[in-house]
Amino acid sequence: MAYLALVTGASAGLGAELARQLAQRHVNLVLVARDEARLETLARQLRSEHGVTVEVLAADLTEPDGLERAAQRVADPSSPVDILINNAGFGVYEGFESSRIADERQLHELLSWVPLRLAHAAIPGMLARRRGWIMNVASVAAFTPSGSYGAAKAAVVSLSRSLNARYRRSGVRITALCPGLLDTEFHERMGADHLPWLPRIAWAETCRVAREGLRGLYRGRAVVVSDWRYRLTKPLISVIPDRLLERATTTSE
Fold this sequence. Notes:
By secondary structure, the protein is of the alpha/beta class. 50% of the residues lie in helices and 17% in strands. The strands form two sheets. It has a seven-stranded parallel beta sheet with strand order 3-2-1-4-5-6-9, with helices on both faces. Strands 7-8 form a two-stranded parallel ribbon. Strand 1, helix 1 (13-24) and strand 2 form a beta-alpha-beta unit. Residues 192-197 have low confidence and may be disordered.
């Protein structure tokens, strides 16, 4: 039986890589992002290379209409979504004291409200079928005092842990994937052009993060910290004072 996965933020970066790896596993796909042209290009490639069915849903999830269209697709009983990947996101580069409040609200809506809304749409059908998987892409920033971005990601981790504990025995598994720095368009889009000076070892490989995330999802792990360099540093976070952690996350601004 072929499963169906819906991936948000699928036009580039980690979302596109997750879609590729799911297609390699012969999982059919619904690709969601704002850029329809890029989605169509990826869809054609995945159909050609892996013989999977790929739908394209162009939607801006920060807009109520776009989010509700995605939620309706997730909940559609005639073509049920077995795997939901909440990956869409962006960051606000400006410091909290100078950022636009509209940008802060949009960030929290996309990073924490959208995963909650789509999970809420998916879980009833998954429970009825007694199977389902939800991956919420969070960040190692969830474990550090890293501003509003970290706060939003911490909410995603907390939600994922709660839902996984509640529904895992019913066949529905929810995982928060927590990567560190990824060499994608994310930082370029938020204007953080200072980051390329960081050493190569600071950047995780997108393909490895996607692979570890999917492995953890299938195994029912509530939280997956990826990759090895961030797993090594995570235990240190709990013993470093917040003021030092906060300084470390903002020294390059």
